């Protein structure tokens, strides 16, 4: 007889690299995003929500992690698309879709077009600890303005947004650099010929990656990577850019060009790229951005920092990065800096991919989950959700009465629910505890006959359990009181108030 | 010489079947969702946001449209997943992910677990007019309670949510049925044997689809589909369920069993399924739901309606549907009913797929885009966004001064932006118009010397252009006024107030 195989049960698991958010995790993020987008809105930016799916062709290939299959995106072939099965993909950021949207609608949009966008993006990367394949971004961009005032505005808005989210002034710094200055340095050391800008791209990439590692490897490490290469502690060798000592010094001079003020830093940069037209143009832009930020009173929160590179390949001018400067203690008790929570820059060529016409754009992206984690770390933990008032069910045949109590509370704006599970009072109070319910209402036959209800102050009970020494308070504020049935709402309000 | 082919430009197009939302479309939906989820929250429901991506295995196959490739979902094979390339997919609703989440976390979750969720879902369907492949859902579910009180609560909450969103009482109706009663009817007509519930599934499906068409085909059409079949106007023949006249009459009796009150309807249903245990169980549930809704004062907004089927295969008990009852006039001037904007029901087997244990669940899903469209149709159009105050740029070298004005306005809570494009004053005012800016600020050299600014009331200008007869008002309220530079904020506030 053939053995009948039982169908295998599906595994109840969040897919690898993905995660779920529940309760306060959802509301806390929503509150933070509301604070940020309120700032964006006040700056005149309009909301935009593009579809999560784009054609692979429209998304382009701008992810730094190009050695992955599908270029780092989640992609599939669509049977319904016009030209015989176009490839579709989940967006990997909010900028590429903006470029598509702007190119598609530029005739009806104002110029410049300021927009903000909030939503998940997806990366087909190898998942790892703290590295997720779906995460939120919160972007603001100005498309259609080449003015450094647009870059300055984004930096000011980013500062205001971070403060609105709860990062105090002094706890963050916005570092600003310019790709044109970087290109100027490349020109000076012979890695970029303005007449043939394609040549030397690989070597320039090696230099950029070396600069980006200054934090981690220090000046010696970067110098090695600019030259012949570097062997790390494990013995692995990373090939260098092959610059001679003199040229490497020029790059190092650039990386360490930061001075006390934007003006002094720019003066130093001007010396370094004095023979490069593009480099000098970049320094001029930095000077204008610095002057505008200073005039607006943001000099204390912003800094021209030539060591900022930013990964994405599409930046063409100013780039910026917001770094949190306070230390937090991680789960293992180690002190560490939180690092970058937002970054962006100018990408004058993105829209041109579609229209053939150069459209200047500049914008910033906030790493929502990182910023939220920073706020939680600073506060010393995630926010606690407060549960609803629980109306318990003593007599199963009187559900309509308990439901009426619950409805009364809700009508008064109090979050409330009736117990819908099975079980005796002990089980119901255990449920109330798990729910974080501040108050439980009890009405049995005796109470009903007497026209009263019992109110149990569960929040007080929890506090008392935590602090046994306040026993006097317990007596003064009994954890359970009686109230007239027709005074239910007032009694619950009073009990909630004493817990507040 | 080989011809160098220019790379093809990507098309700037929203992928077919997808759409973008901009400006007021985004904020209007957000406002509506906030109103709805505030109601859910007050009912004690907690927010949950699961990942957009699930394994195909976890999602299961519950979509009605099974003749599509990939079972109607967007799916791809993942290289990173443990067991050699698991198939991943975008969620097609918010209920399947809830079942997965609950099965995964049930030990730490309270029982019952009430949760709400808002977000996009994706369907790999053939796109068509008004039929999108990504759309929002807004769900609320109670998992872990078998009580009809949980179903009644969902119906009450749905009514409250619709009213909070802006649908007036009297403009909607929540229709309730029970799959068990339907199964009871199937048993009575011989299409369901409780001892062998798998047999006859195809015929039952045909009957369900026939019932679902009552609105469109009327009683005669449904009767034909219950019997031998039906030829439509185009001559196409749809095969019927093959019931004899007597049995078809029993089904028709069920479909038309609605009476003036829930009590009378339930009494009629009881007669129809008197020989079926499961059918009588279903009627009892409907009676309890009806009684609870009546006690809570929702009898005027809810109705037991045996013709409600609901498409999804996973419902096992009560099902409900919210229908808008007002007429709207469509773009072609035709009056039509808006129809269903929300639906749901009880699905006691969903979690069992994962755990092997039956976990009762019940919940509702609001079709966000449909509800929003209904609100707009009722109001006679989408909401207009109000633009920011525009600070124009008369002198390019004084950006910092204009920026300071903009910052002053923002600090006072007024939405404001500085013009960042190129062009003369005419072009800047044209931009202001496109932006919907209510006020434009102008400060040239003369104004600066005199310590004043010019304020242009663009909102008033627009109103005057629309109503020429109010020319007297024009004189009384000049569209352009002068204000002292240090009284900028007050002057703008006053101008905004007169437009309000």
Automatic annotation (TrEMBL), chains A, B:
It catalyses: tRNA(His) + L-histidine + ATP = L-histidyl-tRNA(His) + AMP + diphosphate + H(+). Residues 10-19 have a biased composition (Basic and acidic residues). One of its GO terms (biological process) is histidyl-tRNA aminoacylation. Residues 1-388 form the Aminoacyl-transfer RNA synthetases class-II family profile domain. One of its GO terms (cellular component) is cytoplasm. InterPro entries: aa-tRNA-synth_II (IPR006195), aa-tRNA-synth_II/BPL/LPL (IPR045864), Anticodon-bd (IPR004154), Anticodon-bd_dom_sf (IPR036621), His-tRNA-ligase (IPR015807), HisRS-like_core (IPR041715), HisRS/HisZ (IPR004516), HisRS_anticodon (IPR033656). Coiled coil: none annotated. CDD domains: HisRS-like_core, HisRS_anticodon. It is found in: Cytoplasm. Keywords: Aminoacyl-tRNA synthetase, ATP-binding, Cytoplasm, Ligase, Nucleotide-binding, Protein biosynthesis. L-histidine binds at residues 93-95, 123, 137, 141, 310, 314-315. Its EC number is 6.1.1.21. GO terms for molecular function: ATP binding; histidine-tRNA ligase activity. Residues 1-20 are annotated as: Disordered. NCBIfam families: hisS. Homodimer. Belongs to the class-II aminoacyl-tRNA synthetase family. This is Histidine--tRNA ligase.
